[in-house]
Write a structure and sequence with these properties.
193 residues; mainly beta; eight-stranded parallel sheet; 0% helix; globular
């Protein structure tokens, strides 16, 4: 079934989360953006997973989001999303979404059953653990830098990293795709592998 965590401020995940079937895991910080009058508490409105924790979406989707703009002028400058292991057997459409209005830090493995992985951050995206989409696409859209520090495997899908500033790779593992690979940056593209 579906598992939903929603908080007006931060969401701190200190234990594993497992969803059964084809439901979804939805984690939302800063859910009160439309009515929040405190516009200075940005760094406290984060999603943080404790080290070694896992979100298992079963065959469903996983979405982590903290929104700092409700399209009516209310902005809180949300904190980071710090994710540990995210896994789902979902094979259709977008299986895992991380949408951060600050940094998106992927510190645990990210695995799908063939569904896409979309990571969108207003600031930096950093993966320090492997991503394996098993045929799905992997897309990074960073408002500042995309820092690729671990292996990315798409097995037929494409990998795209778009950043306003730099796309850098220091991955000890390979970035492997039989689909298209595009790395676009307003600055430079560097590969330190």
């Amino acid at each position: 079934g579906t598992v939903t965590f929603e908080a007006d401020d931060s969401v701190n995940i200190n234990a594993n989360i497992t969803a059964g079937g084809t439901g979804a895991v939805l984690v939302t910080a800063n859910a009160d953006i439309a009515t929040d009058t405190n516009t200075t508490d940005g760094s406290t409105e984060a999603i943080t997973m404790a080290a070694a924790t896992t979100i298992d979406g079963g065959a469903g989707t996983i979405t982590l989001t903290n929104d700092d703009d409700d399209a009516t002028g209310n902005e809180d400058n949300s904190g980071d999303i710090t994710a540990q292991a995210l896994t789902t057997t979902n094979a259709a459409g977008t299986a895992i979404t991380v949408n951060s209005d600050n940094d998106a830090l992927l510190q645990g493995t990210v695995t799908t059953g063939g569904g896409d992985v979309d990571i969108d951050a207003d600031r930096d995206i950093q993966n320090t653990a492997a991503i394996d989409s098993n045929g799905g696409d992997v897309d990074f859209l960073a408002g500042q830098d995309a820092l690729i520090e671990a292996a990315i495997t798409t097995d037929g899908g494409s990998f795209t990293a778009n950043a306003v500033r730099d796309v850098t790779s220091t991955a000890a593992g390979d970035i492997t795709t039989t689909g298209d690979t595009a790395n676009e940056a307003g600055g430079i593209v560097e590969d330190f592998h």
